[in-house]
Amino acid sequence: NAGVTQTPKFQVLKTGQSMTLQCAQDMNHNSMYWYRQDPGMGLRLIYYSASEGTTDKGEVPNGYNVSRLNKREFSLRLESAAPSQTSVYFCASRMAGSGYQQYFGPGTRLTVT
Amino acid sequence: AQTVTQSQPEMSVQEAETVTLSCTYDTSESDYYLFWYKQPPSRQMILVIRQEAYKQQNATENRFSVNFQKAAKSFSLKISDSQLGDAAMYFCAYRSGYNNNDMRFGAGTRLTVKP
Fold first, then answer.
1. Which of A66, B22, B31, B57 has the most CB within a 10 Å radius?
2. CB contact at 8 A, A36 and A45
């Protein structure tokens, strides 16, 4: 049982390049999330998927797109990376319902030069 | 929008002593959940403790306990008998009971444990 996995662990991009961050969970969770973590700040929600087939914007969605490929996988795409998107990105998942906690992946450190 | 404030960017504690990390939040909602997460240098976010707003009793998990003051909108974390492995960033988080997908984090407190 791997929990929440993310690939890659590290990535360096040049401004304007695109890339997709991958996330998968094996806990049969309904809801999945993408966060970014910047120095001196807590995690901020980028996008979430409450269930397979749905996605919604979070607090900081600009510059990102997401795809809920199936119940297990939720990807985050940067179409044209900018230095302001240098951050650590976390994926999380949770069972539907109010009483359940989120489980986090190990994070991806992305640097845009 | 709900906000979470952690006013202590850094704290330190002697091994085996007790330390309290502060957290305040701003909300007009009556149904919500509060969490403390630990983030060690490995970056993995680990749930330490959670509190449902409707519960008056403060949550405890072994050496970790909270002081939940609903009227004051305060949610502090007490770590007793501190251990070297407790050294980490600690994040306070708020989750709405009306939108279970809306979770807000504080900026974090870096805890150092001195041997």
1. A66
2. no
In chain A, residues with a C-beta closer than 8 Å to the C-beta of B100 are: 31, 94, 96-98
**Residue B43 and residue A97: Cβ atoms within 8 Å?**
no
Instruction: Give dist(CA B107, CA B115) in Å, integer.
Output: 26
Query: Distance (Å, rounded) from C-alpha A93 to C-alpha A86?
Result: 23
With a cut of 90, say whether residue B1 has pLDDT above it.
no
In the structure encoding, which two tokens stand for residue A27, read together?
């806990």
Rounded CA separation B95/B85 (Å): 27
B23 contacts B76 by C-beta, under 8 angstroms: yes
Give the separation between CA A25 and CA A48, rounded to whole angstroms. 14
**pLDDT of A10:** 96
What amino acid occupies position A86? T
Q: Do B101 and A40 touch (CB under 8 A)?
A: no
Nearest chain A Cα to B34, which residue?
A101
For residue A73, what is the DSSP state?
A: B
pLDDT averaged over 10-residue windows placed end to end, chain A, 113 residues: 91 97 96 94 94 93 96 96 97 85 94 97
Of A40, A88, A96, the CB nearest to B107: A40
- Residue B111's contacts (CB-CB under 8 Å, 6 or more residues apart) are B10, B11, B12, B13, B19, B21, B79, B86, B87, B88, B89, B90
The count of other CB atoms within 10 Å of the CB of residue B76 is: 17
Cα–Cα nearest to A64, from A75, A72, A73: A75
